[in-house]
Each structure stands twice: as C-alpha cells, then as structure tokens.
Amino acid sequence: MVFTFEESLQQRFACKAFTDKEIQKDDLDFILEAGRLAPSSCGFEPWKFVVLSKKEDNEALSKLCFNQENVATASHNIIILARTDLQAKDEYARKQVARFCSPNVDKDKFQQVLNSYTGATNAMNEEQLYAYANNQCHLALMQMATAAMVKGIDSCMIGGFEKAKVDEYLRLNYPFQTAVILSLGYRKNEPKYKKQRLKIEEVVEYR
C-alpha cells in the first residue's frame, strides 16, 4: 500500500497523460477486485469489466474518445459495460436473485422474491434499463479509481466517448453496452492546480 484510504481521496486527480510504466498484475488484480466488490442496487452487479492493455488497442480506443491522450497513453483501460438483462424474465436476474434464497426454496416463494427484486426493472424499457445499470457502473468506477490510488496508480474517468463506436469496436451484443471508461497508469506530469472542492459546510446540511 502506498497511500491510506484518506490519503488516496486527497491524492487522486484526473490524470491527463501517463508515462510508459506498466501496472503490475497484482496491482491490476487489486483494482479489479475493488470493482467486483462494489455495491449495486438490489445486488444485481449489472456490469462487466473489459481490460485493454495493448498499445494499439489503447490508441484505437482513444480515437473513439475524441483523441484523449490519457486513453492513448494508459497502461490499462478498463471499459465498464452496463448490462440490461435485469427483469424477471431474464436468466441473469433470476440467477442473481436466487443467491438470496435458500437452496430448497419452493417455486412460488422464489417467484415472490424475484418479483420484489425486479419490481422496478420490470417496468423499464431498454433505455431506462441502461440508465439504471449505468448508474450502478459508476459505483464500481469510483471504487476502482480509489483502489488504484491506494496503490499509487493514477487514473482518469472517461465519460466523453462515441458510445456506438466503442460498442462496435468491442463487438458488444445484448445485454452489454459501454457505460464508462477508467484509464490507468502513472502520471506523466504533476497536477497543474491544487485540488479544489467546496467546503464541507457548503455541501453538508444537518437537520
């Protein structure tokens, strides 16, 4: 560990360019495990993490992210995919909900539990399901970015990209769509500006 959790929150910034230094596998695994353990609504874990590390792949991805240098120079890019098979009819949703039931639960009881977990998603269309899953993906994103900084690894969260083209580049099919990208590596330059945040009394209200 390089930084404590609190130090990581202070040190992390949106890194705009990375050096050629590669992230070691143990550190990458630590970051991905942080994403795997992220919380999600109803425990659906509506995500998948696609990891790119080849220079040509990172450069190709950068072109779909409006030529952002951090994407091109990253040691690794983690593309977080949102999955939308979260309704009672979907095998994935049924499998996830089954984890919260006893092994010998009867069919009617399982259906009752399933309906309670998927009550909201059953009423959603595909666009709404993507938005719902996308929100959950950002929980995994933040957890991985913080975990990276614990190891002294810099990052930048990429929300600016041509989604349809990234989906096509990754050859994605239902139920997956690109949600957000995390570029990882070691900073080429120090931050230009001191971290700026609102004061605690400006964002917290006690009642």
Task: List the topology elements.
Elements: H1 5-11, H2 25-36, E1 47-52, H3 55-63, H4 69-73, E2 76-83, H5 91-98, H6 107-118, H7 126-150, E3 154-158, H8 163-169, E4 176-185, H9 200-203
Antiparallel strand pairs: 1-2, 2-4, 3-4
CATH superfamily of the largest domain: NADH Oxidase
- As a percent range, the share of strand residues is 5-15%
Q: Which structural class best describes the helix and strand composition?
A: alpha+beta
- What count of helical segments does DSSP give? 9
- What is the CATH first-level class name of the largest domain? Alpha Beta
Protein name: Nitroreductase
GO molecular function, one term: oxidoreductase activity
Organism: Campylobacter avium LMG 24591
Family: Belongs to the nitroreductase family.
Structure notes:
Helices cover 43% and strands 14% of the residues. The mean pLDDT is 97. It folds into two domains: 5-85 and 125-202, NADH Oxidase; 87-123, no CATH class. A four-stranded antiparallel beta sheet has the order 1-2-4-3, with helices on both faces. The two termini are 38 Å apart. The chain is α+β, with helices and mostly antiparallel strands. The protein has helices at 5-11, 25-36, 55-63, 69-73, 91-98, 107-118, 126-150, 163-169, 200-203; strands spanning 47-52, 76-83, 154-158, 176-185.
Short description:
The chain is an alpha+beta fold. It contains 9 helices and 4 strands, in the order H-H-E-H-H-E-H-H-H-E-H-E-H. Belongs to the nitroreductase family.
Features:
207 residues, NADH Oxidase, alpha+beta
